[in-house]
């Protein structure tokens, strides 16, 4: 197996870090570990510094403030040197003993291996929203995974080089990777109860997740042809508005010309349907024009700017010396 790196984003997980490194070292050999401290305030960074001083294969990155898990993963991916990158949480709920099984799937030719916490040790108010979210995402993505939210995953480096992360998009990497033709597999992984700290996720992330889901559907189907969506929508609205307007104009002529002496002729400006028709036509034209502008933006696409700011970085002295011959 090519070199392996484990990227571990964390927020206030001081009490678990030493034990996590011990478990990883017991389950793997020659594996690089990259901790990304996403703005912890409990002394997690000081613990990471102590671990890095004792172990050359451990690195650390500290953000100036909390930028979110996607940003933390991006920073970790840039720091990682392995050809295979594994992501896991720092709360000891993910078991490092599963890493060899993930690497075996990578050796079988898969590009992404996603964990499935089939037996979750979480309260019901976390399990049920996750089940609903996974069902919705499975329906729209057509990707038969059971646990998109699981942070325990393995990737080939080329996958991470082609998928951009921002917002809450980290949970959608298998979907984005599959849309680009990468092979995705899923294995069941053991999930342990949380022993220290509290969960950083709750109901507040559900609206964000649904919005990101809409973004993923758009990116996977219309990223490079936004006019297919906006132009089609604009065409439908314009057609409905145009047909409604033609009907109203026909009625206007009918009440004035076709029937002489009609006592109650149609007055278009007094009909709400007339203004609805005009509105649909205008919105349809705007949607079509927006689609054209989006096509121009896609044609001149620029990579997104870095969305985080690093305060400190720890790397082995060997690497620093090799850069100064």
What does this structure look like?
The protein has 325 residues and is of the alpha/beta class. The protein has helices spanning 17-27, 44-54, 69-79, 99-107, 124-141, 157-162, 173-179, 205-222, 226-258, 272-299, 317-322, and strands at residues 4-10, 32-37, 58-63, 84-87, 112-116, 153-156, 184-188, 310-314. It has 2 domains: 4-223, Spore Coat Polysaccharide Biosynthesis Protein SpsA, Chain A (Alpha-Beta Complex), CATH 3.90.550.10; 226-299. Helices cover 49% and strands 13% of the residues. It has an 8-stranded mixed beta sheet, with helices on both faces. The radius of gyration is 27 Å and the shape is elongated. The mean pLDDT is 83.
Separation of the first and last Cα atoms: 30 Å
> How many DSSP helices?
11
CATH topology of the largest domain: Spore Coat Polysaccharide Biosynthesis Protein SpsA, Chain A
Largest sheet: 8 strands, mixed
Helix-strand sequence: EHEHEHEHEHEHHEHHHEH
């Amino acid at each position: 197996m090519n070199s392996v790196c484990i990227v571990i984003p964390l927020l206030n997980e001081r009490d678990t870090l030493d034990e996590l490194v011990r478990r990883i070292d017991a389950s793997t050999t020659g594996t690089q570990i990259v901790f990304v401290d996403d703005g912890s305030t409990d002394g997690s960074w000081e613990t990471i510094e102590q671990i890095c001083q004792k172990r050359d294969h451990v690195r650390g990155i500290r953000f100036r403030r909390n930028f979110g898990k996607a940003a933390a993963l991006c920073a970790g991916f840039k720091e990682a040197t392995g050809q295979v990158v594994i992501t896991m949480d720092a709360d000891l709920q993910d078991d490092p003993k599963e890493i060899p099984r993930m690497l075996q799937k990578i050796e079988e030719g898969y590009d992404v291996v996603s964990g499935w916490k089939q037996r979750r040790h979480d309260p019901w108010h976390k399990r049920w929203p996750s089940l609903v979210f996974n069902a919705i995402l499975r329906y729209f993505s057509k990707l038969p995974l059971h646990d998109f939210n699981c942070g325990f995953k393995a990737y080939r480096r080329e996958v991470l080089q082609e998928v951009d992360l921002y917002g809450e998009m980290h949970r959608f990497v298998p979907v984005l990777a599959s849309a680009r033709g990468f092979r995705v597999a899923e294995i069941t992984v053991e999930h342990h109860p949380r022993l220290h700290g509290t969960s950083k996720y709750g109901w507040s992330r559900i609206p964000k997740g649904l919005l990101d889901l809409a973004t993923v559907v758009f990116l996977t189907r219309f990223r490079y042809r936004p006019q297919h969506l906006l132009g089609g929508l604009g065409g439908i609205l314009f057609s409905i508005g145009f047909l409604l307007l033609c009907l109203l104009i026909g009625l206007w002529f009918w009440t004035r010309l076709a029937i002489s002496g009609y006592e109650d002729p149609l007055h278009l400006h007094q009909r709400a349907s007339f203004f609805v028709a005009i509105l649909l036509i205008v919105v349809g034209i705007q949607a079509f024009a927006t689609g054209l502008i989006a096509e121009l933006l896609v044609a001149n696409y620029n990579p997104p700017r870095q969305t985080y700011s690093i305060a400190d970085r720890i790397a082995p002295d060997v690497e620093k010396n090799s850069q100064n011959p």
